[in-house]
Amino acid sequence: MIVVEDEVFTRLIGVVLDPRTSPERIEAFREFVAHDEPDFAGWCARVRATVPELVPSDVRLVSTQAELREALPDATSVVVESLTIGPAELDIAPRLRSVQKFGTLVRNIDLAACAARNIPVRLQRRRANVACAEWVIMMMLALASKLTRIAGRISPELLAEAGYTAKAFPAGHTARNNWGRIPGLRIAYESTLGLIGFGEIGREIALRALPFGMRVLCTQRSPLTAAEEREFGVSYVPLDELLTRSDFVSIQLPFNDETRHFLDRPRLERLKPGAFLMNVARADLIEREAVLAGLRSGRIGGFALDPQYAAPGRSDDELLTFDNVILTPHIAAQPRFNALADLAEIISALKG
Asked: Is residue 343 part of a domain?
């Protein structure tokens, strides 16, 4: 029996391995991936063919620590994202042969206790987290270069429509670039990126920002160790310091009652003037009216948001009226092949 923490993507383990999975769930996943993988049944068959010894399996989905403990006595493998695997769990799991983490941070798994039982712990670097980090970097560069304002405006007439006075510089004296005389262009090099939340997505962002020559600050509930700061090349600072020092700010916190409107009006008013703000997590981590006020006043230099405040979004959203705002329709973690490849690798590892 394979015990799996119930998460929207880990349910695929049951779809592939457990013949008791409902037709409704199988059809839901077929529709969910169809725009990237039109042959979902074929994908499932190909994955099954790599693990014939696991077909069929009893895949038990659990949502709470109590449900996990109830299922562990019969478990041969367990896949967790946030549920805890420690000595108490291992003591009631005599048949357990492997632990799989859906992610790379193992705060919820006692590695020493698993090693004492000779139970291997495998990590899965999630491609969706990598994709979200790429989205943040892309938005940061697009906002810094005013791409939303000037893309396609290659003639004096088109630049004039955007409010710029395009005029060539005197020949024979200076360079000819930026004859559109567009002010306020920025680069990432020697700028400061502030990361609110330094979990798996935050760490993926830091890994991509450092090669640009950026200073990276981060904040979260608990300070980083000196070893973690060295490993990722970041500096842990309190939230207020991060807000006042950062040229770019990205928020990637889990969403719950405590983090709703985490960036409210008072906190956004402490932003460094002209800072750019990116949100790849949940829209309501940032108070909507507060970000609108910051855009109207110019305190916020630009804003990028992937999951919108309403899904689907609205064509009359006031945020669309700002030419320094980029909104995308919840696509940062895409394509679907990210999740499919992750789960195929997890299922293959369960064979071992």
From this structure: no
